[in-house]
Every structure is written in C-alpha cells, then in structure tokens.
Amino acid sequence: MFYDSLLLAYRNIRERKFRSFLTLLGIAVGIAAIISLIAVGYGMQYSITEELIGMADIISVMPGRQIIPGMGGYAETITERDIEDIERIAGVEDVGPWMYGTAQVEYRKERTPVTIISGDTQDLEEMYATYAEFEDGRWIYEGDHRGCTIGYSVAHEYFDEDIGINDRLIINGEKFVVVGVLEKAGMMASADLDPNIFLTIRAAQEVLGTKDIYMLTVRISDIDRADDIGEEIEETLDQNHNMDDFAQAMTMSSMIEQIGTVFLILQAVLVGIASIALIVGSIGIMNSMLMSVMERTHEIGIMKAIGATNSNIILLFLTEAGMISLVGGILGCILGTITATLVSIGVSFYIGMEMPAIITPEVMIGSLSVAILVGVISGLYPARRAAKMSPVEAVRYG
Amino acid sequence: MIRAVNLKKIYKMGEIEVPALRGVSLDIPDGDYVAIEGPSGSGKSTLLNMIGCLDRPTSGNVFIDDVDTSKLNDTELAKIRREKIGFIFQMFNLIPTLNALENVSLPMMFYGSSRGKRAKRAEELLKIVGLADRANHKPSELSGGEQQRVAIARALANDPPVIFGDEPTGNLDTESGKGIMNFLEKLNKKGETLIIVTHDPEIAARAHRSIRMRDGTLKA
Ligand SMILES: Nc1ncnc2c1ncn2[C@@H]1O[C@H](COP(=O)(O)OP(=O)(O)OP(=O)(O)O)[C@@H](O)[C@H]1O
Ligand SMILES: [Mg+2]
After folding, report:
1. What is the pLDDT of residue A69?
2. Helix then strand then coil, % of chain B, to nearest 5
3. Is there a contact between A307 and B75 if contact means CB atoms under 8 Å apart?
4. What is the per-residue DSSP string for B5-19?
5. Could you give all domains of chain B from N- to C-terminal order, each with its CATH number?
6. What's the gap in Å between the CA of A306 and the closest CA on chain B?
7. Which of A298, A306, A310 sits opposite B106 (nearest CB)?
8. N vs C: which end of chain B shows fewer Cβ within 10 Å?
C-alpha cells in the first residue's frame, strides 16, 4: 500500500506540475534560507576562532577601567616596571608594549591630527600580517627611530597631496621619513590600518611625550597554562599598583569562549529568521494540499465507495505532501549550499579574510527532516478532512 | 443477505429538513435480482446508498449477512464495502488519472493484495468485460460503454457477493446499455446478488422482482 501511495502521489503531483512546483519552491526557499544562514554563521565563527587560535600563545593585558570623578580615563597606566615583572613570570617568553595616541602631522605645510600606533616592530608585523599588503616600502624596523609606516588613508586622503615612500612628515615637531605605505585594508582590519601612522616605541614616546603604555601583548611558551599565567600577570600588576582590579589579562581561549556565546545568539536569531521563511513555505503546502483535497473530493468519494479506509486516504495525501516536501527539501539543500558558497566567496573578498561556508551533514539531515516534518504536518489537516467525508457526500461533489 | 429495518434518512439543508426516506424495510436474499423503480426524487438512490453502506441512515438498521452495520466504525464499514459490495454508478466514476487496468486494481490495493496478484486479476477482469486491449487507456480515452465496463470490472475486483447499480445504463445509448445489462444478468445467473436502480421498464421486467418507491416509502 505504501509503495502504491508513492505511485499515486507521484501521478497526482505530475498532474498538477506547476502548482506542485510552486509549493515545492516554498519549502525549498525556507530550507535554503536555513542552510545558508547556518553555513555562513558557522563559517564566520570558524574563521574568527581560527584567527584567535593562531594567536593562542598571546595574552593581552590592559589596565582595568578606573573612573576618576568628573573625568573618564585611567588613573594609572602600565609602567616599565610592570613589564619587567611580567617578564620574570615563569612561562612568559616576551612582553610587547603598545602605545596609542594622537599627534599633529605636517606634510608640505599642511597639518592634521592623526592616530599613532606603536609597538615592537615584530609584533606590528605579526599582528597585521594577514591583512596588510604594501603599496610601496615595508614595515618599520626596530632601529627606524626616524622612519614610519603609514596607512592608506593617511597617504591618500588626509592631505591634498599624496604621500609616497621617502617623503618627509613632521609629527608633533619631529621629522620622520616614510618607509612604507600600506594598501587599503579589507573591512575587518580597515580601522586598524588605514587611518594610522606606525612608529617604533622609542619614537612614539618622544612624539607623544609620555611613557604611558596602553596595552601589553604577552607571548607565552605553554598554551595550556595560558589561564594560570594570565592570573599571575593580573596579580602581579594589582600588587604593583596597589589596586584590586587594576589589570585585566585576556587569554585567547577566554575570548574564543566569549565569541562562542555571541555566535550562539547570532545563530538563534538567524535560525529564527529562516524559520519564518519555512513557516511561509508550510502554509504554502497546507494551501496546496487543501486545494488538492477540494479538487479531488470526488475521487476521494470514489475511493471510499470502493473500500478505501480513512487511513488509506490519509496515507495517500500525506505521501503526496511528504514527497513534495522531500523534493523541496533536497532542492533547498542544493540552493542553500550554492547561496552559502556564493555568500562566503563574496564576504571573504569583502572583508579580506578567508570565510568558508561550513555545511555539516547534521545540518543537511536536520533541514531535510524539518522539511518533511513541516510538509507532513501541514498535510495532515487537509488529509484528515478529506478522509472524514462520507463517500456519498464526496462522490456527489463536482 | 441484506436486510433493512425501518430506514429513515433526513437531509438537513440549513434550517430545512428534507426527508428522503420515511421508514423503509426490506429483505434481499442472496442471489436475488431486484430492480428499484420510482419517480425522480422518490429516494431510490438514497435507499441504495444506505443498503450499500455508502452512507449511514438517520435511523433504522441495515444488516449485511446478519451484521448490524450501524454498530460498525468507519474502518469496519470500509471493509464491508471492500469485500461484500461492488458499486456501479450512473456517471461511471473512474479515477481520471489512472488507466483502465489501474482503476480495476484499485479496490484490490485497498484490500491489500500483492501487486502481482492484482495485475493478473485486473487483466482477467478486463478480458471478461471485453476490454483486454484497452488496459492502458485513460477513462477520457474510452467511450461511455467502455468506461462502464471498466467500472463493472472494478466492482468485481474483490469478488463481492452483491452488485449495486445506480442507473448503470442511464448514461449509455440503448445498445451499450443492453450489453451492460446482459453482462450483469449473466453474473446474477452465476449467483451474484444484483440490486439495480432503473427508470427502464424493460430492465424492471427482467428482474426477479421490482420495488417501487414514492416519497421516500415503498409502494406495495
Ligand atoms: N445530499 C443531499 N442533500 C439534501 N437533499 C438530498 C441529498 N440527496 C438527496 N436529497 C434529496 O432527497 C430526495 C431523494 O433523492 P434521491 O437522490 O434518493 O432520489 P432518486 O429517487 O434517486 O431520484 P433520481 O431518479 O432523480 O435519481 C430528493 O428530494 C433529493 O433532493
Ligand atoms: Mg438517483
């Protein structure tokens, strides 16, 4: 009987090709939306997590926020002594200071304020390695106390005249030579690179007139001990500054965890949106099945008159709904995969970072099951209605 | 053996009640050939539908082989229709998307026969009604007489003891009508119970007995 229902359902679907196709499309779009949203979501999470894992041996240390009455800002900053103390902690390989600030920059008599970013030159290079391409020149070296690397916007947008390598800038009264000009960065790193000038720490201290350190990046030798070392760093700094919560040491694993929860929420929102598409699709199936039942009321009557039971009739219609939604689901999986792949290619290109579309078998199987479930459930009401009619009533119809 | 006891059927059309049967009792023994006659609207089809288990009476009982059908649920009633009853309609009522062979197979499918058995039996039946060469034709590709012969083959599929016909020749020309009736009467001679609603006095005359209806009651 089941195999026969398949055959009969197939006949009926073929008989109403266009409408069946529209119904099927409704389901397919819903499933495609779910698959592609999940795939892109996973892809984003994956690529960001990968990025962070690539930096798993780094702990970033920042002073916790200390509010001074009447003013925002930090009561104290990280000092040279802090760096020395951290370097003595077991498992710490290397400590890199970072400085940020704003300086007046003069180029061919024109002046404008620009953000200065400064760190160990090796750290600079590593931090931005994946995003930064050079239009010309190179990163500053450790000995380049009079050299600077500049971002794309600084070179081409901030001043009337373009800046190239070997051009001279005056930064807060100090003379510098441009040794490298970066290309325009992708979206992800644009704010970090394009509007900034990069200097060595020594140069930055001179230019900014301070030794205040904004942040430290601590490289460790044993990733498994990252959390312990992070705690030790916090304790050391708190002690140095005689404060309870002076410093905050962020390990990558804690960041990955945080990002994980953010993505969980994001996924929930995306799946919610996709579900709306699916609900619309299921209304389509229900509508189509109701029409199919109405059109075939007469046939249902005949079948019942020659001995079909109510469950025979329900089986026939559910098979039809199931078949439409199965094919719709498969089509949806294909469409969703294509969409996700295109989106990932587009996004990867746009943000300048590899972002794959991740489609797991679980998601595929899950979506297909959802499609069939939705189809069968939306087919159930019309099918039951069809089955309950008295044969005479149904035969008289039409 | 079919027995109807004080059958009443009232159709409700909104507020208005239309009494189609006003208390009909009758016995039809196995092997009988009964014609039901009467003016249009007198309740012939209604009576046939009740004793053929296509519909439930408002009150009264129908016994099929001593089983009170008013006590059966939908599934059990479907089983009676499937196994004990073959129904032939005036409008043939074949499934338009299925070919002749598949239409004849359908009752056997609901019965649960294997595919092989079904195909064999359906071919046999089509041969009996003289349509072996039309097995793959859709109803729309068959003449009225041919469609009715397919419908008869379908009614015979599960080898039921009783055949009901609601004006089975009503939509056919005289010649094909005669053919159909000859065939049905041959079945009756082999023991099949035949219950036919008809407006044709010739058919009524050939039946073992004729029941006349008027205003939802039997006329003596
Ligand atoms: N489903 C229905 N709803 C309402 N009234 C109905 C229904 N079926 C039949 N009737 C009414 O019941 C009465 C008997 O109808 P029935 O079809 O049994 O007559 P009939 O003797 O078969 O007539 P005909 O010779 O025209 O086929 C008629 O008045 C008819 O209008
Ligand atoms: Mg009638």
Report:
1. 44
2. 40, 30, 30
3. no
4. EEEEEEEEETTEEEE
5. 31-56+78-218 (3.40.50.300)
6. 6
7. A306
8. C
Would an 8 Å CB–CB cutoff place B67 in contact with chain A? no
CB-CB contact of A297 with A391 (8 Å) = no
Chain-centre distance of CA A230, in angstroms? 27
Percentage with pLDDT > 90 across chain B = 95
Residue with CA nearest ligand 1 atom 31? B41
Secondary structure class of A175 (helix, strand, coil): strand
B89 inside 8 A of chain A by CB? yes
Interatomic CA distance for residues B147 and B145, integer angstroms: 5
- Give strand pairing partners of B61: B5
Amino acid at A301: G
Q: How far is the CA of B45 from the centre of ligand 1 (A)?
A: 7
pLDDT tens figures, A287-344: 877 887 888 888 999 999 999 999 999 998 889 888 988 999 999 999 999 999 999 9
Helix (H) or strand (E) run with residue A164 in it = none
- The ipTM value here is 0.93
Please say if the pLDDT value at position A71 is more than 60: no
Contacts of B176 (CB under 8 A, 6+ apart): B143, B144, B145, B148, B169
Confidence (pLDDT) at A45: 81
CB burial string A36-69: b at 16+ within 10 A, e below: bbbbbbbbbbbbbbeebeeebbbbbbbbeeeeee
- Cα–Cα distance for residue pair A395/A302, rounded to 1 Å: 6
Pick the residue whose CA is nearest to atom 3 on ligand 1: B11
> In residues, how long is chain B?
220
Could you tell me how far CA A222 lies from the centroid of its own chain?
Answer: 28
Write the CA distances from B104 to A196, B86, B117, B120, B123, integer angstroms: 84, 12, 12, 11, 9
Q: Hey, what are B187's tokens?
A: 């079945």
Q: What would you report as the CA-atom Rg of chain A, rounded to the nearest whole angstrom?
A: 32
Q: Write the pLDDT tens digit of every residue in B166-183.
A: 999 999 899 989 999 999
| CB-CB contact of A158 with A152 (8 Å) | no
Write down how long chain A is.
Answer: 398
* Residues B195 and B36: beta-carbon distance below 8 Å: yes
What average pLDDT does the segment A92-120 reach?
A: 92
A113, A107 contact by CB (below 8 A): no
State the Cα–Cα distance between residues A94 and A88, nearest whole angstrom: 10
| Residues A147-202 pLDDT 10s | 999 999 999 999 999 999 999 999 999 999 999 999 988 777 788 889 999 999 99
**pLDDT of A72 strictly over 80:** no
CA distance A328 to A104: 62
* Under 8 Å between Cβ of A386 and A313: yes
Which ranges in chain A belong to alpha helices (H)? 2-15, 17-53, 80-87, 121-127, 152-156, 190-193, 201-208, 226-241, 252-295, 297-305, 310-351, 361-388, 391-396
